[in-house]
Task: structure prediction
Amino acid sequence: MQGMDSAKTDGFQKDYLSYNKKLHDYSPAVKKILNLVASYIPDAEKAHANGRQAVWCHTYNWEPLFLYSLDAIPAGYTEMGRYSTMDEMLIAEDYYQFPAETCSMVKCTVGQWHLRQGGGIKKILGGSSNCEPYNLSWEIMRREGYDVFNYDVLYRAPSVTGIRLQELANFFAEQLYDVAEWLTGKREIDEEKLRGEILRSNRLIKKVKKILDLRVQHPFYIRSLPTILMLNVGVSNYFGKPDEFEDAVDLLLAELENQPVNESELKRVIPLVWGGGTGQEFGLYEAIDQSNGALLGFRSIPKLYDETLPPIQSLINYVYNSQRAGASVYARDFIEAEVERLKAKGIIFYGYLGCSFASVDRELWRKYFHEKGIPSISLEGSFQVGNPSGQVLTRIKAFVEMLA
Result:
């Protein structure tokens, strides 16, 4: 497959989405997923304008599931980078006086919210455990007229048990009722609706995990960009359209199950584990694909909710039993398990410029895997639109080709 013609793209993510639809012309399922990606935020805003409740939120945890149970659309503010340029970054720096070294993800989000003042989605569900720059952004946006609820849920270390754990659980339950009251005006949670969302989430997680397993035998059928968008965005919030997303996932499963194994692909593929979030510089994924790399393992593969528990307790357990948050060793162990499961040849760590928290984790992981003889590379990129720098592309291509 030929790479993207640089003369036909200005680096904006929408062009990479269009290019990938052409690249996957043989797969109606992949094209459906990419259409959902492209329409996610615009359609959420249109639905809100037509009377549907919608909330800006983080989309990598329990928030989307809970919002769906309250009949609200989760609009992921983590998608803002696909609509941001340096202009939005400068709004955060010049108007709101964010330091230049602040995480580009936070600055993009703040710049986008600034431009959306006076209309559109006004509610923001923030989380105090995200990061300090985001905590600052919640307060700034509240001052600017947004309706902000900032919940306070902590990471739980495995050593926290007994009475202290029960206190945390009780506190989280109260926070859930607080969110419900903030959004609906009633301190009520429809547990049957919440149970239905938990069942749907587990069902989709299992289907996407099966797709990831099938990709081991079909590493190039769905390439890096649509794979990571499906996993890191879609499986959490369904791009605002749960039924359409599940239809696309079912179709992709059927396509992969009926696809014959291509032995030549298996001989040349370089299996890799992605140890980062959703990089907005989509050209990185193109560079990996061009070098015969395939992102087959991910730090972000979601775990299942416990369906045997009452719904609220299931959400509480999901958050406080997470072993991929908090101390970096938890995520590191999961990444290592992915390497062993896939016999991966290397790991790519990726984070955003200005995120000092994640940069420390990446250095700890890189040192650990280097000492174990597992090749890895640590990259930093911007959250706003644009092509990766030539240096980053050269590094990623050299790394993947070295592993061959």
